[in-house]
Amino acid sequence: MNKIKMLAAAVVLSFCTSTTAFAQGNTLDIDSLISNNIDSTYKVKNADISIQQAQNSYNKAIKNTGSAGETSDDMTNDERYNIMITIANAPEEAKFSIYKYTNQKEVTKNEVKLSAYTEYNNVMNSKDALDLQQDKLNNAEEQYNSAKLKLNLGIITEADVKQTEVSYYDAKAQFNKAQRGYELEIMKLNKIFDIDVYVKYDVLLKDKFTESPYIRSYDDYVNDALKNRAEILNAQEYVNLKNFEFKIIKSVYPSKYDVMYGIGQYNVEQAKDALDMDNLTIPVEINGLYNNLQVKCKALDSKKDALALAQTNYNIALAKYKAGVMSKIDFDSQEISVKTAQNDLKSLQRDIWIAQLKLNLACDIGSDTSKITN
After folding, report:
1. pLDDT of 184 over the 70 cut
2. Contacts 24+ apart (CB under 8 A), 196-204
3. pLDDT number for residue 126
4. Which residue spans adopt a coiled-coil conformation according to this UniProt entry (predicted)?
5. Which of 55, 113, 159, 308 has the fewest CB atoms found within 10 Å of its own CB?
6. pLDDT tens-digit profile of 303-339?
7. Structure confidence by residue, pLDDT tens digits, 241-290
8. Which residues of 335-374 are buried (b: 16+ CB within 10 A; e: fewer)?
9. 204 has which bridge partners?
10. In this structure, which long-range contacts are made by residues 197-203, counting pairs with CB atoms below 8 Å and at least 24 apart in sequence?
């Protein structure tokens, strides 16, 4: 019996240990996180519902064509028009809705993707800030402990120790603040994919940054956007739908002076105006994104220069430290300066990566569902 109990306890202990190891070994691969979870997000599911509803409307419209009847000479124009609308136009409207919502789903997926990558870069920046604050805390703790030792030796006063103590607790407060900030960014990322917000990660597998960005010409970006954007595609298809409706109207109300003829013509013109407006507003949007990317890229050189200067000062400090003419505490301060400059450069490179992603998505089908109106 005792052997059985011991075996059971060993199994339980083994299970608990392996479970803990698994929990502690969570790796965050942002690309896999997106590809594996994007279709189950709330926004994408809603887009699927809209597509299915449009498909149901199409099926219903096709079914209704069989019971709509046929036109005859003794019918009024209004009666013939209603039958033709049911038979011909209702399915076309439903087909347009399927097309529109299918495009909107792709925009929604890009919207989620952009949101996830943006938040992931916030996570990476927060992690760098946390690591930096850890180094600063370690340095402050070393200075505090050194000061207490010097006090015991009678080298410095209690006031000097108090000053290093204040610096230590300030560094500790800054570290705790950075830790909370990092944990908050992780929660925000988890929330995008409806993951438990308290799930934590020990390894951030990939970094998303651009060292030497390649920027095409402004015209190339605009041309792509005007071919690919959902607003353009939907607006073009909407013009086709209104032209189809107008043909039905003209077949029943051929006179240009008829009210229905005027309504049909007006609807076509309105659809064309909406398309023209999209052709005007999209280049303006691309211009803003293009300029934003260029501004960020121009700031790269200054960040690289700052890092080079910090690295030079670090190398000088390293030589002094090895020669015994610089304390480890002062040397560690130079190391922190290098890491600060590295973080500043890496943060900008991540911003550039996101700026490029925004521009590329804006030149594809899009990444902002609020811009889809039809």
Report:
1. yes
2. 199/26, 200/26, 201/26, 201/27, 201/28, 202/24, 202/25, 202/26, 202/27, 203/25, 203/26, 203/27, 203/28, 204/28, 204/123, 204/124, 204/127
3. 98
4. 123-150
5. 159
6. 999 999 999 999 999 999 999 999 988 999 999 999 9
7. 999 999 999 999 999 999 999 999 999 999 999 999 999 999 999 999 99
8. bbbbbbbbbbbbbbbbbbbbbbbbbebbbbbbbbbebbeb
9. 28
10. 199/26, 200/26, 201/26, 201/27, 201/28, 202/24, 202/25, 202/26, 202/27, 203/25, 203/26, 203/27, 203/28
Closest of 360, 358, 348 to residue 124, by C-alpha? 348
What is the token pair recorded at 194?
Answer: 């409806």
d(CA 346, CA 211): 9
**SS3 label, residue 68:** coil
For residue 230, CA distances in Å to 237, 259, 309 come to 10, 33, 47
For the stretch 212-250, pLDDT in tens is: 899 999 999 999 999 999 999 999 999 999 999 999 999
Token pair recorded at residue 31:
């690309």
Measured in degrees and rounded to the nearest 5, phi and psi for residue 195 equal: -90, 150
Residue corresponding to tokens 């890491």: 339
| pLDDT for res 244 | 95
Owner of token pair 């997926």: 109
Q: Are 135 and 332 in contact (CB under 8 A)?
A: yes
343 contacts 128 by C-beta, under 8 angstroms: yes
Q: What is the pLDDT of residue 136?
A: 96
Alpha carbon separation from 112 to 35, 77, 153, 205, 296 (Å, rounded): 11, 49, 61, 20, 23
**Every domain of the chain and the residues it spans:** 36-199+217-371
Is CATH 2.70.98.40 the classification given to domain 36-199+217-371?
A: no
